[in-house]
Amino acid sequence: MHAFLRGLISASIIAAIFAGAVIVLFPAPCAKPITYSIGDLDPRFKLPKETFLKDIALAERKWEEQIGKELFVYDPASKFTINLTYDERQATTDKAKAITQSLEKTSESREGLLQKYEDARNVYDVALRLYDKHSAQLNTDSVVFSATVERYNKEGGAPSEEYAKLQAEQARLAERSATLEAERIQLNGLASTVNKFADTEGKIVNTYNETVEKFNDEFSGDREFDQGEYTGNAITIYEFVKNNDLVVVLTHELGHALGIGHVQDPRAVMHYKVNEKNIQAKSLAADDISALMSQCKKGSWDVFYERLMNFTVRDILNTLFHL
């Protein structure tokens, strides 16, 4: 009987110790804030620590405002770190930025050139209408002059007074013809300018289209959410374009830190792929909120059971690390 009681007491003590260990090692999600510190901050990102902390705070708030409590707290002494690590992913993004800037400059050059083309074309069109008008008038007057000369020739010659008039008219027609030729030369020069602008614009368009095609081949399309990584004892961000992009990636990885997995809705920040819908989202989607609420309802034993069913060597190391 005493042995049975001793065994029962020992079992109770072991069970209590085990239960305490589960509560300590597998804390209930959302029970207390996750503390974090800033780890690696690669200077190639050109992001000040203060700005990084503000971006993390914005990402935190997306989760915290849904549940009305602090889920994350900055603590410089925390072993859980959030890092910015530069690798080939950010190098690729930087390359994409450079191409985008090149496209913007090309577009600006094209717009400026189009304005010059339009201005030159307008001048050419006015000059062409004047040339056509002057040419038609000269042709009409020349026909009348030729008919008058032919009539006087048939009559045996023009009277001296009329002959003088014909001489003067012939000189005026010659002068107008010379002026018209000058207009033609000027018109050809204007046409050459218009064509030069058109050719240059065409080359710019070809360059622009080739660059866009290259950009789309290399950088377009949805891809898996590999801009960041949560490893249990750290969050590491590898890539972002702008600060709002960084906030979305941080929000995604903080969601993993809360124990939230990927969801189905492409609009959700916890969707497994980066796309235009979730990278531009200003708030959490319904699937994100539902996953958060479900996670925060869990207790230590729920977490223990889930971890037990999916335990890996890395999980063991992470658990020991937190000790």
Automatic annotation (TrEMBL):
Q: What are the entry keywords? A: Hydrolase, Membrane, Metal-binding, Protease, Transmembrane, Transmembrane helix, Zinc
Q: Which GO terms describe its molecular function?
A: metalloendopeptidase activity; zinc ion binding
What's a GO cellular component annotated to this UniProt protein?
Answer: extracellular matrix
According to the entry, every stretch annotated as the Peptidase M10 metallopeptidase domain falls at: 217-292
Example GO biological process term? proteolysis
The answer to keyword Ribosomal protein applying to this record is no
Designated name of the protein? Peptidase M10 metallopeptidase domain-containing protein
